[in-house]
Amino acid sequence: MEEKVLNRNQAEGDGYCFGCGPNNPYGLHLDFREEGERFVTKKTLTREYQSYGGTVHGGIVSTMLDEAMGGYLYEISGKRSVTARMDVRYRHPTPVGEELTIAGWIDSKKGKFVKMKAEIALPDGTITAEGTATIAVME
C-alpha cells in the first residue's frame, strides 16, 4: 500500500487549527497521512484531554473524527469544506495514555456533498468511536 505523507503547513491560515495546526499550543497536532484511500494518524492523548478517570472527553473524540473526515477532503481536493452534519457513535470509552489510530475515508459523493466515515481504534483493533458526516465542499 502506497503511503503519502501530507504537508499540513500548506493549509490555509496560520497553522492554528485545533485539530491539526502545528502552531496551536493547545491543539491536538494531529499529523495525518494518506494510506491508500484512507486518511490516518496515530495519537496518544494525555490527561489534559480527559473527561473523567482516564477517558478522553467526548468532544475531543468528536473533534478527532471530524478532522479525519473534513481534513481528508481538503488534502485531496485543495478546497475548503465544512461539516454540514455529523453523527458519532461512542462504542467504548477512548482511553488517555494509549495509542489511538484515527482514520477517515470517503463513503460516497453527490454534487458538492461528500459522505464520509471515520473511526478511532485501539492497538488491539477495538473500535472506540465511529463517525459519519456529510461534508459540503466550498467553491
What does this structure look like?
The protein is mainly beta. The protein has a single domain (38-137), classed as Roll (Thiol Ester Dehydrase, Chain A). Helices cover 14% and strands 43% of the residues. The protein has one helix at residues 58-77; strands at residues 3-5, 33-35, 38-44, 50-52, 55-56, 81-90, 99-110, 113-121, 127-137. The strands form 2 sheets. It has a 7-stranded antiparallel sheet, with helices on one face. Strand 2 (33-35) and strand 3 form a beta hairpin. The longest helix is centred in the middle third of the chain and has 20 residues, at 58-77. It starts with a strand and ends with a strand. The model is unreliable at 1-11 (pLDDT under 50).
User: Separation of termini?
Assistant: 31 Å
Give the overall form: globular
Give a count of the beta strands, DSSP E runs of length 2 or more.
Answer: 9
User: In the CATH scheme, what's the topology name?
Assistant: Thiol Ester Dehydrase, Chain A
Protein name: Acyl-coenzyme A thioesterase THEM4
Subcellular location: Cell projection, Ruffle membrane; Cytoplasm; Membrane
Keywords: Apoptosis, Cell membrane, Cell projection, Cytoplasm, Fatty acid metabolism, Hydrolase, Lipid metabolism, Membrane, Transit peptide
Family: Belongs to the THEM4/THEM5 thioesterase family.
